[in-house]
Amino acid sequence: MNHDQNLFVQTEMRSLLDKLPAELASEHPLQFLMHLDHIRQRATQYRLSALRDLISALEGALQPAMLSGGGTVIARNYLEAMRATLDCGQLSPAMTEALMANVALRLGGQP
Length: 111
What we know:
By secondary structure, the protein is mainly α. The chain contains 6 helices and no strands. Helix 3 packs antiparallel against helix 4, helix 4 runs antiparallel to helix 5 and helix 4 packs parallel to helix 6 (93-106). 26% of the residues are buried.
């Protein structure tokens, strides 16, 4: 991808993430997951594997968190990490794993 395309993709993906408030995860979980799936499809299309992997991790962490009332906190931390991936460009699998571990640590868990 050339520089202009990268900027376009970053702008589009950041806009999609910014339009997805973390509170929606607790208030309207189905709507949140539908928006999240749309972002995943775009990330897959643009070959943003780190973003796609973080979305999958968020989905896995969200269900148990919603049962305990912590869906918003989980969503906020993952959305923040997703935005950070856009600033980094293409990430290796090791860097993606490090981002997910960082989110886990911020949530008080173990990587």
